[in-house]
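User: I'm writing a tutorial on reading structure tokens. Could you give me a worked example: one chain, its sequence, then its tokens, then a sentence or two explaining what the tokens reveal?
Assistant: Sure. Here is the example chain.
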Amino acid sequence: MKTKLPIIAAFFGIIGAALAEEAKPQRQNRPTRAEIIAKFDADGDGKLNKTERTAAKEARKAIRQERRKQWLAKFDQDGDGVLNAQEK
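And here are its predicted structure tokens:
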């Protein structure tokens, strides 16, 4: 009996951890590394050189700026481009 209890507790701990891992939300609309390389690897060597990395960073920056504009348009009631205390 003394050995069964720790074994059962360990079993449920492992199962609980596995279920919690499955419940983590996935980031949506985020490209995989392979997708990024396929999109920005201009010379086709399977790696991103400095120029290709810069292009990928600029594209990511443009996406972030567009999302910020959309987010501000949704919540910035007075249209000043800044969220004040009432808008937060």
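What the tokens reveal: Helices lie at 4-23, 33-40, 50-75. The radius of gyration is 23 Å.
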